[in-house]
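Reopening this one. Same input as before:
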Amino acid sequence: MGVDRVVTLEAHNLAAFQNAFRCRTEHLEAHALFADHFADWLRERDLAVVSPDVGGIKRADRFREFLARRLEQEIPGAFVPEASRVLADAPLSRIAVLDHIPPFALERALVDAKLSLLDAAGLVAEAIRRLHAGGSLVELLKR
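Same output, byte for byte:
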């Protein structure tokens, strides 16, 4: 029995992921999970969304769009003067990551102090449910 479909969550290199399989692939992005996680904490703050490298600009911009909708405010994009000021003046106080890759290599004190693990199980479960029921993954990822 062969694999009918492969589902991944936040693949860093989507083209490489899709080329690795000879079956249908589905890619889930977790922008909404991150936007929901940060929305209350970031409300009323000066914000800028930036990318660590050129390859991440499109992903950063999609996250910026989700976060702007959650906060109901405009948020500058990747290469604006405000982004440099925000990054230069503010140390990182929290880092949010998805829980599908546990942070085993990090010291426990660092995890407790700086890391927020976001539960991705609901997103993956809903994607699988929709795949079996003929639902839309596009609509799921727009929410």
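So the earlier flakiness isn't reproducible anymore. For the record, The mean pLDDT is 77.
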